[in-house]
Recover the amino acids of this structure.
């Protein structure tokens, strides 16, 4: 059976949680393969809204095994706080598995994340301050602490001592902060060992066995293509691989097992944090999109920057990820506009550019070239087929599909799980 990847095709917050939840009842495993608690998914089921930060969206689907993969960095305090919150609401989280190879966020990484951003000043990246970047940096510098280390106090202490040899020099001499005690970090991590132990698994082996047993595995990205550390708008990106390639390295599933890649795009565009955003709006339209779409971060609460749909970005995401199907979310948010602009190309130094510019400089100076489509005023939240949509809404979807590089297989017309038009089966 196949492995299916879900990736964000813009700058995040496209509605990956809803898409994952839509498929959750039909898949056996859902794997989060990158990121940490620096991004969230909001899932609405009936009158209940669930904000997930670290846990895979599949945690809400009975019978589905949710896995936190080796490519994720884990704040254990957040993990157990989130589990407890779901348990209090009657959600069974007992099936959760955590990769033994996933890295753990230590308190000193959160501290360094915050002071680094303050030190950068106007050059700040716009991180969430949750220690994600410094933890990935430790991973690449071979100074990281993995989940499995928590069960061997001797190894854990050695790793913490090695990390703090340098970090305490930086904290005290560069940032004028107090030194971090080794015992303080070791004790805080060991406190979670007993509760964590039953969840820990060789997740790559579990997933291989599942696929060999004809189980369906869904691989769920945190963040999105334009925030990918290699393929995003660097340096205004996250610290992990949020593309299809990251799904393989972050889960241990080889690329030959992936049969479908589902890209999630909003019917407009948003971004949180710093960095270029060609279609960003600074007028009443931007405020209206933010208001209609509830565009505030699930994890941070920060207002999202809002803009019109960017077709070159969608084509870029389709190419980088090998997108086979798009899920178009939040089409209902566009209800009420007389006309809806869509960015179809850019102008860079007086030259029309059809694709995403190669360099950061050119992308920073890219000006959107728009085509305008007639809007609609009808409430579309009750639509369950394409024929239920107003003609102008259907024309808008058809235009986006033609210019975005892959077919649109599902359309979100409201926040609820049921408020979705399925055009083509996603599995």
């Amino acid at each position: 059976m196949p492995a299916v990847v879900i990736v964000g095709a813009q700058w995040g917050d496209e509605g990956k949680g809803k898409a994952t939840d839509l498929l959750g009842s039909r898949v056996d495993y859902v794997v989060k393969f990158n990121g940490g608690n620096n991004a969230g998914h909001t899932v609405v089921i009936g009158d209940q809204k669930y904000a997930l930060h670290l846990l895979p969206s599949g945690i809400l689907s009975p019978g589905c095994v949710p896995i936190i993969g080796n490519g994720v960095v884990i704040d254990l305090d957040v993990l157990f706080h989130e589990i407890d919150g779901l348990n209090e609401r009657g959600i069974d989280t007992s099936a959760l598995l955590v990769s033994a190879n996933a890295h753990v966020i230590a308190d000193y990484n959160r501290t360094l994340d915050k002071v680094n951003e303050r030190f950068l000043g106007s050059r700040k990246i716009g991180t969430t301050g949750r220690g994600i970047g410094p933890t990935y940096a430790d991973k690449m510098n071979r100074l990281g602490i993995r989940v499995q280390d928590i069960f061997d106090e001797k190894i854990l202490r050695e790793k913490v001592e090695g990390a703090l040899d340098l970090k305490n020099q930086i904290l005290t001499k560069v940032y004028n902060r107090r030194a971090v005690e080794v015992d303080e970090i070791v004790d805080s991590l060991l406190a979670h060992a007993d509760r964590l132990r039953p969840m820990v698994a060789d997740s790559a082996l579990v997933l291989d066995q599942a696929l060999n047993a004809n189980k369906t595995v869904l691989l769920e990205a945190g963040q999105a293509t334009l925030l990918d550390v290699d393929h995003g708008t660097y340096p205004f990106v996250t610290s992990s691989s949020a593309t299809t390639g990251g799904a393989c390295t972050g889960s241990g599933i080889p690329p030959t097992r992936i049969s479908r890649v589902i890209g999630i795009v909003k019917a407009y565009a948003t971004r949180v944090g710093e960095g270029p955003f060609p279609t960003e709006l600074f007028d009443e339209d931007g405020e209206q999109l933010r208001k209609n779409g509830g565009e505030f971060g699930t994890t941070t609460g920060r207002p999202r920057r809002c803009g019109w749909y960017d077709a070159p970005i969608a084509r870029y995401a389709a190419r980088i990820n090998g997108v086979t199907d798009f899920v178009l979310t939040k089409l209902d948010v566009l209800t009420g506009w007389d006309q809806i602009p869509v960015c179809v190309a850019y102008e860079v130094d007086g030259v029309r550019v059809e694709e995403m510019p190669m360099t950061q400089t050119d992308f920073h100076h890219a000006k959107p070239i728009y085509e305008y489509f007639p809007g609609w005023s009808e409430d579309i939240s009750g639509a369950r087929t394409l024929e239920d949509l107003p003609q102008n809404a259907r024309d808008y979807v058809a235009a986006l599909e033609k210019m975005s590089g892959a077919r649109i297989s599902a359309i979100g017309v409201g926040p609820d799980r049921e408020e979705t038009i399925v055009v083509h089966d996603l599995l």
